[in-house]
Amino acid sequence: MIELEGVPELIDPVMVAAFEGWNDAGDAASTAVAHLDKEWKGEVFAALDAEDYYDFQVNRPTVWLDGGVRKITWPTTRLSVVRVGGDKPRDLVLVRGIEPSMRWRSFCNELLGFAHELGVELVVIMGALLGDTPHTRPVPVSGVTSDPDLARTMDLEETKYEGPTGIVGILQEACTHAGVPAVSLWAAVPHYVSQPPNPKATLALLNRLEDLIDLRIPQGELAEDARAWQLGVDQLAAEDSEVAEYVQSLEEARDTAELPEASGEAIAREFERYLRRRDGGGPGPVAGTGQMGGHATDGGDGAAYLRDTPSERTRPPKPQPQPRPEDDTKDAKDHEGGQGAGDSGSGPESGPAGDDGSGDAKGDDSGPGDSSED
After folding, report:
1. Domain residues for 66?
2. Inside any domain, residue 340
3. Residue 89 is part of a domain; what is its CATH number?
4. Within its chain, how far is the Cα of 307 from the centroid?
5. Which of 16, 39, 41, 187 could form a disulfide with 128 if both were Cys (CB 3.0 to 4.6 A apart)?
6. Within 13 Å and on the Cβ side, how many CA atoms surround 81?
7. Is 249 helix (H, G, I), strand (E, B) or coil?
8. Is residue 34 included in any domain, yes or no?
9. How far is CA 303 from CA 66, 190, 204, 228, 229, in A?
10. What digits encode the pLDDT tens for the residues 214-233?
11. pTM (2 decimals)?
12. Within 10 A of 180 (CB to CB), how many other CB atoms are there?
């Protein structure tokens, strides 16, 4: 029995979840949930027992000093709650953690237990996969569900994916079987520049979430970081003719495939978001990115957004075009989500975050075996 002490009765709660590891290319999804937690000052009210779900040789705990006292942080999944004010206040239950190493069915059942106790009306699980998409175009985000009725009422795709899956796919199916409405949002990250962070993909996921649950999400520095990221990749690609040629081929393929959409629903959706933010005193779209802006610029110089300090480097390493494995040749819309992206031994797809799906090696001194992946 789950007992939630100190958690008030929630208003129209939506559970938003993301997991570091195999389903998190460029750390885009986990960063999106972290952004929500930071902007709305989430308060952690529960954490799953790490001993039940994690292999500590894969996801190693970290040791740190607190006033001279050594403490240990265990890899786990934590739940926090935020209340979003306004004319129609509502609550978000944020689930952020690492893809578990074992007992996935028990893991999902425990999360569903929290959802039941809190009266969650909808579960939104975010993920990111590696795809054949150019960094110069808006990040494709697909919304999928296993519930045909939900697909129809919320204008989503009913998933038809068959193949290997991660915790995102397992949790969505667990929700469906438990009668809890569930949606997965997937952002496609360029496979040739897969190193985290990818603020442009994070921003795209948050924009899609905003549309899905009809809730304005503060962007903070994400829009500026997205500009910096794209300009940085532009500059690096311009220095390598092979990369520039490869990006151009992806642009031509993308523009040809999505020409009807670009002239219709996509533009209407962006314009509606722009009007919503303008009426609320918010900014307009980010030039050249297809995303919404969060800060005004000083002049038209794009270099103003290139922040490159010792403590925070937003420019990614030099991209390298490489052949893709078979699992990632499909378009993002045909994926149930990210399977094969960053899988162990998969060449360029193993770059963003730990080939074993660990995602918890940040700050670990044990060496490369625990790096996080998508």
Report:
1. 14-221
2. no
3. 3.40.50.10900
4. 22
5. 187
6. 20
7. helix
8. yes
9. 39, 22, 22, 8, 11
10. 888 998 999 999 999 999 99
11. 0.69
12. 18
